[in-house]
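Continuing the batch. This is chain 6 of the set; chains 1 through 5 are on the previous pages. Same settings as before, nothing changed between runs. Recording input and output for traceability.
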Amino acid sequence: MGDVRGEEEDRAAATAASESRAWMLMFALTVAAMESRMAKDAWRSRPQYVSEYLAMHTENGHTLTNVGR
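Output for chain 6:
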């Protein structure tokens, strides 16, 4: 959310969001936090949380690359 706009604009957009949009924003922030803590090569060692994370993406319609499978 902080890419182009400033923090105040982000806060205003989040405050004005519909309930479903607010849940999507929360989901995006949660996924970003998970990815930021994930090792760059986590797909190799596949800790449990990575497998669950990738399964969640698949369940939501994302097609994994050969590396992610």
